[in-house]
């Protein structure tokens, strides 16, 4: 009997941009386990992590250290690594206090990098979920692996809409399920009803090998979940902890989800989860069973087409999303709140700036180890908070900065510290700022750029190219060129968003209705009778974060906030250009290390007509049109 899966479902697995949309896809979620002695991780007097052994004593993160030790006399409670005030190096201190120490996550990041280094030997199609978890798209691996094991399904003469050949029975001898197979009533070890089972078997063997290698090299155990999408894989990794992997077959997805509440799913807790419960008059428990019984039409009637389709796909385990590489960091910040004892002197602030500079330098150079090309920031921002005065509660000062590709971490730290001190002096000399008592201080980096790509500084001011309609953003589930092989046309609404000019994208836009979203996912046709995954991520399920701009007093979408700040910098540069005899672009050809935003005296003479013409021709605003 032929398979119910088609050749195009198989071909979609070849690359991550389309694999996540295939019903043959397999995602893995690998999560590091805690150790086996009763251990809690301490930050000041609070508990930030509890391992499984300690949980057996009833210890939770809601306990303080004293209460936890009463429950378990043999409890180990090491404090996280900390920077001491004025030091450029973190260490493990016995009894650090919150007023004079700052937490460092550097040890966690180091081991995290070691784990990722091992996993990258197996595949580069992975997404860092957090410091100790990772999502892996196994589609490309499975596509390549089955070319050797099952060449009959890869034959070119099989048409895209033709069904795949029948699964061989029995399977080749090495193929066996690895891990805990959810709802395994038959206690099967190598049986497969269709090709989706075969791909899950191969994936379970591959992930088991990865986990074994992590243990061999580092001595760490980890758990894993394997399923057709990221949401299910993450739920699966926690189902049989520690040191096990859970495999969820496609036919068992609905039953597996019945073991959870809708608010257990990422993005559906909090206010939005309550909104869903109210919309369907649901109690707090049994929500998944109730929502699985609601038709798509009813969900769209109550929530709108976009939200209704999204929720329907989620509760049936059909929501597809691709892996997202997260090494393209645009900003980072080192911050400390001084609630116990506020800062009162300039020297106090400088001691903490030394800590912040070291913390940021370590993170920047750790980022280099995760990427092929190093990244360096072009902007330094000092933020100050004073909650004890009636004026502005938070004030920022920023400057541009250039770092060479070959700069050492020690030199990077020193230059960043000097830049921070310069910004501190600017804030202290500003009569409009009541600096002390200082209750919050932070040093931030922004506008990260790939170093070594051969860019000149003039390129900083060039207009961003409009994306072509076939090249959709990697962090979107919208239609792409690859969807043409599925016989699906492009989504006009998605293209309209991409055609916005930079000025339009920088300005807050009104909330738009998504009631027009009625598309079926491009990975299936309606006659496939397999699923109807949503291809639309543009809906209220994923709330857009905004950042308030103190310069123009507007809330800007966070993902374009750095570009928005660049626009302000460009505006300041244009103002300076009108007061200088030389143009900004001629200055840009020289090494640019001056601080932006300083006031300059106006020119003593009126510019000539020719100068006005030159100014108009060379205005940097033309690069933003």
UniProtKB/TrEMBL annotation:
A Gene Ontology molecular function term of the record: zinc ion binding
Primary subcellular site in the record, as a coarse category: nucleus
One of the Pfam families matching this protein, by short name: IMS
Gene Ontology, cellular component aspect: nucleus; replication fork; site of double-strand break
Protein name according to UniProt: UmuC domain-containing protein
Segments forming domain UmuC: 47-269
Source organism phylogeny: Eukaryota, Fungi, Dikarya, Ascomycota, Saccharomycotina
UBZ3-type domain span: 542-576
Composition bias type Polar residues, residue spans: 471-495, 503-524, 581-597
PANTHER family (alphabetical): DNA POLYMERASE ETA (PTHR45873)
Sorted UniProt keywords: DNA damage, DNA repair, Metal-binding, Nucleus, Transferase, Zinc, Zinc-finger
Family matches, as InterPro entries: DNA/RNA_pol_sf, DNA_pol_Y-fam_lit_finger_sf, DNA_polymerase_eta, Rev_trsase/Diguanyl_cyclase, UBZ3, UmuC
Biological processes annotated in GO: DNA repair; error-free translesion synthesis; error-prone translesion synthesis; response to radiation
Subcellular localization: Nucleus
Region span, Disordered: 464-537, 577-625
């Amino acid at each position: 009997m032929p398979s119910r899966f088609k050749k195009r479902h198989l071909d979609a697995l070849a690359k991550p941009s389309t694999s996540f949309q295939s019903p043959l896809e397999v995602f893995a979620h690998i999560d590091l386990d805690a150790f086996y002695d009763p251990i809690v991780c301490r930050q000041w007097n609070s508990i930030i992590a509890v391992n499984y052994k300690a949980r057996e004593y009833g210890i939770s993160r809601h306990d303080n250290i004293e209460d936890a030790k009463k429950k378990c006399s043999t409890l180990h409670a090491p404090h996280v690594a900390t920077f001491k005030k004025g030091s450029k190096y973190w260490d493990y201190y016995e009894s650090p206090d919150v007023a004079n120490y700052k937490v460092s996550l550097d040890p966690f990041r180091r081991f995290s990098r070691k784990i990722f280094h091992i996993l990258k030997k197996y595949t580069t199609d992975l997404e860092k979920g957090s410091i100790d978890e990772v999502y892996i798209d196994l589609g490309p691996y499975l596509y390549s692996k089955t070319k050797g094991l099952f060449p009959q399904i890869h034959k070119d003469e099989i048409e895209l809409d033709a069904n795949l050949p029948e699964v061989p029975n029995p399977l080749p001898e090495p193929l066996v399920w690895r891990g805990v197979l959810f709802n395994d009533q038959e206690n099967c070890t190598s049986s497969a009803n269709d090709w989706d089972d075969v791909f899950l078997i191969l994936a379970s063997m591959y992930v088991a090998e990865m986990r074994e290698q992590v243990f061999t090299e580092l001595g760490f155990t980890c758990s894993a979940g394997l399923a057709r999408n990221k949401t299910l894989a993450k739920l699966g990794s926690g189902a049989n902890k520690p040191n096990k992997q859970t495999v969820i077959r496609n036919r068992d997805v609905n039953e597996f989800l019945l073991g959870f509440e809708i608010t257990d799913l990422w993005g559906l807790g909090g206010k939005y989860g309550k909104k869903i419960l109210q919309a369907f008059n649901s109690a707090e428990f049994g929500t998944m069973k109730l929502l699985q019984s609601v038709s798509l039409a009813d969900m769209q009637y109550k929530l709108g087409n976009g939200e209704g389709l999204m929720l329907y796909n989620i509760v049936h385990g059909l929501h597809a999303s691709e892996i997202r590489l997260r090494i393209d960091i645009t900003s980072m910040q080192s911050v400390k709140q001084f609630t116990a004892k506020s800062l009162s002197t300039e020297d106090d602030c400088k001691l903490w700036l030394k800590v912040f500079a070291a913390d940021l330098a370590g993170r920047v150079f750790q980022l280099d180890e995760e990427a092929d090309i190093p990244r360096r920031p072009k902007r330094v921002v000092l933020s100050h908070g004073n909650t004890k005065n009636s004026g502005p509660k938070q004030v920022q000062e920023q400057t541009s900065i250039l770092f060479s590709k070959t700069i050492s971490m020690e030199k990077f730290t020193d230059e960043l510290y000097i830049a921070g001190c310069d910004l501190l002096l600017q804030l202290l000399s500003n009569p409009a700022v009541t600096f002390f008592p200082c209750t919050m201080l932070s040093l931030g980096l922004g506008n990260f750029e790939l170093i070594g790509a051969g860019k000149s500084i003039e390129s900083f001011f060039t207009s961003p190219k409009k994306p072509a309609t076939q090249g959709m953003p990697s962090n979107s589930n919208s239609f792409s060129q690859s969807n043409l092989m599925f016989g699906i046309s492009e989504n006009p609404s998605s293209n309209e968003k991409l055609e916005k000019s930079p000025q339009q994208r920088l300005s807050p836009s009104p909330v738009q209705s998504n009631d027009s979203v009625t598309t079926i996912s491009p990975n299936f046709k309606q006659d496939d009778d397999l699923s109807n995954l949503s291809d639309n991520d543009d809906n209220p399920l994923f709330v857009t974060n905004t950042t308030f701009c103190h310069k123009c007093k507007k809330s800007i979408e966070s993902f374009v906030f750095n570009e928005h700040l660049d626009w302000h910098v460009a505006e300041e540069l244009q103002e300076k250009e009108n007061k200088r005899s030389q143009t900004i672009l001629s200055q840009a050809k020289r090494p640019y290390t001056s601080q932006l935003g300083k006031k300059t005296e106006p020119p003593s003479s009126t510019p000539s007509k020719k100068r006005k013409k030159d100014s108009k021709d060379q205005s940097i605003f033309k690069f933003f049109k």
